[in-house]
Request: fold
Amino acid sequence: MGKETRAAGLCLASRLFQRMVLLTQRHKGAKKNLGVSASLCEKAIFVPLRNGYMNENEIGKIVVDAAVHLHMELGPGLLEGVYETLLAHRLQQAGLKVTRQVPVTFEFDGIRFDEGFRADLIVEDKVILELKSVETIHPAHKKQVLTYLKLTGLKLGYLLNFGAAAMKDGIHRIVNGKIE
Reply:
């Protein structure tokens, strides 16, 4: 992964999510190579402002940006676990709290299920990410994410298919109720 690619991805994330503080080091030639401010570099760190409220949509912008850039760098066809590991790493570098392979418990009809399903990624305890690496998404995959949202009480989920030729075709936003 090249320095220019990482810096460009971080720059885009900074424009999309203005409520984040950018801590930078100087990167020689960034303005010339990337058409962005020379203060950006590959090691830029985004720190969410914790005294403010980061809603699901703001988190989603960062998730989508990171997924698109990861797909552009690696391309389709790798195992789902590779994308999961790298996406979690990128989101953590962006200052977000990310948990992987989270067993989700729920109760139905008085019966408790200690592990009804495992969420691939949960970001900031607000957004569920279900990752796939398949040629085409089946409608059942979208229903699966909606079920996860209902069982957890969360409002926003993304089905991210890294197997799509273009990541824009692999991003599916699923909403449970209304996001305020």
Remarks:
- The chain has two domains: 1-52, 56-180.
- Confidence is low (pLDDT under 50) at residues 1-47.
